[in-house]
TrEMBL record:
Keywords: Oxidoreductase. Residues 6-122 form the Gfo/Idh/MocA-like oxidoreductase N-terminal domain. InterPro entries: Gfo/Idh/MocA-like_OxRdtase_N, Gfo/Idh/MocA_domain, GFO_IDH_MocA-like_dom, NAD(P)-bd_dom_sf. Gene3D superfamilies: Dihydrodipicolinate Reductase, domain 2 (3.30.360.10), NAD(P)-binding Rossmann-like Domain (3.40.50.720). This is Uncharacterized protein. It comes from the Bacteria.
Amino acid sequence: MTKQYRWAILGCGKIARKFAEDLKLLPNAVLYAAASRNLKRAQQFANEIGFEKAYGSYTELVEDPKVDIVYIATPHSHHHEHALLCLTHKKATLCEKAFAINAREAREMIACAKENNTFLMEAFWTRFQPAFLKATEILESEKLGKLKMVRSDFAFNAEKDASQRLYNIDLGGGSLLDIGIYPIFASLMALGKPTEIKTHTQFGFTNCEESIIMSFKYANNAMASLVSSFASHSSIQTEYWCEQGYLRLNKRWFANAQISIWEKGMELEEVVPVEPIEGKGYQYEAAHVMQCLDAGKIESDMMSFQITLDQLEILDRVRADAGIVFPKHDFKSPNENELLAKRAE
Ligand SMILES: NC(=O)c1ccc[n+]([C@@H]2O[C@H](COP(=O)([O-])OP(=O)(O)OC[C@H]3O[C@@H](n4cnc5c(N)ncnc54)[C@H](OP(=O)(O)O)[C@@H]3O)[C@@H](O)[C@H]2O)c1
């Protein structure tokens, strides 16, 4: 018989609601508990979506021995603190992206998972999307020849509201950690870690980074051109340019995208069939967590600790070039003044 897992939600915000709705698609997922900093909010969330229990603090949630898996859906600034809270209570933990504010925090979270022999994974849902997996398979087959360039964007015109996390520097605000992380992920999975990084950055009304253009160069001479922004809308596509053709993950490439390919000699592009998804697509990462737990793992081989660390290290290097600092999280280092000065220019 398939083992059932009791899921708990930590932080009842926007993404928590979408994720929890998709959990209902999984027969081995039990919607068990939801926790908020405010009991009424937790009760409302639990009642509306169908969780058995509601807690008015995150600590009460992790102290419940019946909770098997916690999904952390708080702002990036709090992932480190909340992951340590879950892991030290031996709760399997699925933590939203950006996994942490910097690589140092990510390393501490991973060390904590290992010390407590407890499962931990970044909730990078794109890694599990049928379209992304299909695109990866086509690129790896080299049917289109060697990959030379990744071009990826993710932008939308965000509400200019300083009270929301997107423009709040103390909550890890700015487009980079929120949506720029997706183009970085597309290039990381296809080309690995870059040898050179260059950026252009625009800061917004709260002094948060608002738009960023990133150019990466790799040891094999491949390159990537990546963009994220809260200032305008974009086509939200990822293209892989290869020696014999190209592949494009179309609109909303990070989730339920359509794939187009063009090969030398073809008159027009072709659409590659991809299985349609149910719900929003968050169930794939949740199902994978339960498969890992069935197998007694504390680390996913698909979304490994190394992928998460590589991604955070690239983000740190991008921030160093762009002069993006999160004062409450980044170490005071000799070059911090330099970064701040660069930003003031
Ligand atoms: N994978 C995806 O597709 C996707 C999409 C959107 C967002 N995300 C990620 O999910 C995380 C949450 O994003 P969201 O859009 O759901 O944010 P949100 O709507 O602002 O919700 C975040 C929740 O975190 C809790 N929280 C705890 N400490 C907080 C603090 N100091 N300030 C504000 N909220 C705090 C709050 O829940 P309580 O008040 O209930 O405690 C709040 O509702 C982010 O890291 C984001 O990158 C992922």
